[in-house]
Every structure is written in C-alpha cells, then in structure tokens.
Write a structure and sequence with these properties.
The structure is a homodimer of 214-residue chains.
Chain A lengths: L24 H16 L6 H8 L3 H4 L6 H25 L5 H18 L1 H9 L6 H27 L8 H13 L13 H15 L7
Helix pairs in contact in A: 1-2, 1-4, 1-6, 4-5, 4-6, 4-7, 5-7, 5-8, 5-9, 7-8, 8-9
The first copy, chain A, binds a DNA duplex (18 and 18 nucleotides) through helix 3.
Chain lengths: 214, 214
Amino acid sequence: MSSPSRPRLRAQPASLPPSAGPDGTRRRILETALQLFASRGFHDTSIRDLAAVLELRPSALYAHFPSKEHVLMELVRIGHEAHHELLRAALLDAGAEPAEQVRALVRAHTRAHAEHPQLALVVNEEFYALTPEMAAPALALREQSAALLMEVIERGVSKRRFAPPHPLVTARAIAAMGVRLPYWYEPGGALDVDTLADAHAELALRMLGSATSR
Amino acid sequence: MSSPSRPRLRAQPASLPPSAGPDGTRRRILETALQLFASRGFHDTSIRDLAAVLELRPSALYAHFPSKEHVLMELVRIGHEAHHELLRAALLDAGAEPAEQVRALVRAHTRAHAEHPQLALVVNEEFYALTPEMAAPALALREQSAALLMEVIERGVSKRRFAPPHPLVTARAIAAMGVRLPYWYEPGGALDVDTLADAHAELALRMLGSATSR
DNA sequence: GTCTATATGTTGATAGAC
DNA sequence: GTCTATCAACATATAGAC
C-alpha cells in the first residue's frame, strides 16, 4: 500500500457468501482481505496493511494462512465455486426452452456480480497473481461455467430458436455484461438488482436473435 | 516481479500507436513497460525488471521519467487519447443515421481493443494505480468517450430508431464487449478483426432494437 | 492464537563519476 | 544519458515466549 492510488471500488462492507465458512478470525481475515484486494489490488496490499485493519500483528495471520497468496487463493476459490453453483442451480430451475435457459443463466450471472462486486473484482482481476498451480482449480470451474452458456446457446441454434451473428463472440458479449458490472453499478442506487438482471437477460436474448424475445 | 504468477496476456510484442512519440530510449521504455504492466501488472513490475529487459541500469530510467508512476501515467494518457480520437473520427465519418453512428463507434471501439490489447488492458486495469491527480485527465477523456455513445443512443431513442430495454445499461453492455476483448481474443487467430468488429456492431444494434438492423 | 523481535530480500529513488 | 554504488523504507515470512 505504498501510494495513495484511486480505490477501484468505494469502501463498502465486503460481503462473502455463506460458503466462505463460519465466523471467526479466519473469516474476518478473508473479508478484510477481500475489501483491500478489491480496493487496492493484491500486489498493493501488504500483510501489514491487512493486519493493521484487523488490529492484529502481521505474524498472527500466519496461524490461519500459510501465505498471502493462500488468502487470495481461498477468495478466488470461494468466488468461482459460488458463481458456478448459482449458474448450475439456475439452469436446473429453467426448464427445457433455450430462451428460458439463457434468461436463467444471465440473471444468475448478473445477480452474482451485482451482489458481490468485490468478490467478482478480485476473482476476475487478481486471479492472475496466482501461480498456475494455485489458479488451476478456479480455471477449470471458469471453463465449465463458460461451457454451460455455450452449450445452451448451441442447443438453441440447432433448434432454430437462436440466430446469433457469431455464437462464441455472442457468448463472450453476454458474459462481459456481468463481468464489467463492479466497475459502474452501485448496489444501493436507483437501479435495483432485479431490474438490472431482467435488462441483461433481455439484451442477451436480443443478441441471440431469440424467436421468443419480446 | 516477486512470484511466478500467470501472465494476463501471452508475451507478444506490445504495440503502441504512433502518437506515443518518436523512436528512441523513451519510446523503448514505454513499449517495454507496456509489455510488462500488461503481463504482470504495474505493482508486480519493478523498476529493476523494466531495466533488465531494456538492458539498462535502473538509474538510467530516471533520465527519461521522474518515477515509475509517470511511466504508467504516460501509457494511460496515450491509450485514452488514441481511443478517444478513434471514436471521434469514426463518428465524423458516419453520417446522420443513428444506426450508422452506433456501428461506426462500436467498430472503432472494438478495433482499438483488438489491435492494441496490452494498451487496452493497462489503460483499463492499471489505471487505478495512479493517484487521483495523475488519473484526472484520462478520467475526463473516459467520460467524454462514454458520453459520445450515450448521446448517439439517446438521439436514436428520441428519433424512434432505437428501443433499448434501458439506455444506460445497454450502453454499458455495448462498451463491455470491447473492454473484455484482451482477455480472450487472439489477434492472429481464426477470427479476423474486421469480422469481429462487424459482429460487435451487429450485436450492439440488436441490443438497441435498431429498426434498420438486418 | 497472538505477541515481540528479527531474518532476509526487494523496493523506488538518489548521488556523483564519466 | 548511462554508469557504479548506495540509502532508507518496505516486503514476506519465521523463531520462540506466553
């Protein structure tokens, strides 16, 4: 935390999904690290910064995590698993119609990024600070999540429900809407999460040229 | 450059627009810094790393830039100015029809991100490492570029050419397609830049519910 | 599990010779 | 404009007492 740089995200309490584990010092460390990594970045946040906010000595952190990188790895793991689980659950609820499946996936993707903006930022931007070994499980989940959308799109195309200009480019464009949310969307503002999720779902179906789009 | 982390972008020659200035050591520094900042991030690239690639001693860099942060500031400036100029030029060529204006803006936005992926990454992700004072000019340009698209969209809506579900959300979704490109698009691959730019323009017009979309 | 104290390396930047 | 040499601050992480 050398320089007084611009925070990427305004200071707001960083929320972790329940799957992050029970309350206690370990969870406090993860929540505080999430806040700092999202705001300043992994490499610009020192163990000392983290300890100072937690009102602990730096050495105390090593009773909970073997290294700073392991703290990031845990956040990246939690984020990827929660996201993937939300997508899978949404798809199970969606029925067999391709348009409904896309709507469900996009709504879940958008909700995840809008409701946990810090986690989304850290997962997407600080991911690259991990060694290949530490990033591998998250990378696998990431590819599975992307494949989920791609399969739904390709099924819709083969059933003549969708006619996107380019299926892969369209899939990336759909995913990008959610991934970019933490950079501009303000959770407490005029636009509520549900309206936003609906708008994204509608935009996705329009991109796909969905026959059942309004 | 402490840890052997995953590079964000495969090592490829980092291209800088001609507006970056004449050849010489100063330009070599900028090109090399662009490469390293894009691949490892600003905070994980040391003055020593930069000097080593340039085959210079660290102190030699201070004859060209007063600090590491000034090197980043210059890259951020170059990137924002080149991007904004491309958008302005594209809009001037586009005529008065809203759909053609959107198509021109999106094509230029996409080309800029696809043809200068490292610069796009550094401008978008490492921007936050700058102090507010050093980031201010770039931030102003960024807002002007966003306003350019927003105005074209709102003009199209008032002329009843466009009917987006939510103009601001749609504008952000359109911009996001380009901003996310460096993370997946491979310039030398099967998908050429022109086809990609066309696909993005088509997706943008579909999102807007453009009457003249194919 | 937290503390004090410290080991060991790296950081951005500067002084002054050529 | 580049070099050698160096400074002061900071980094991650560990040892060992309580």
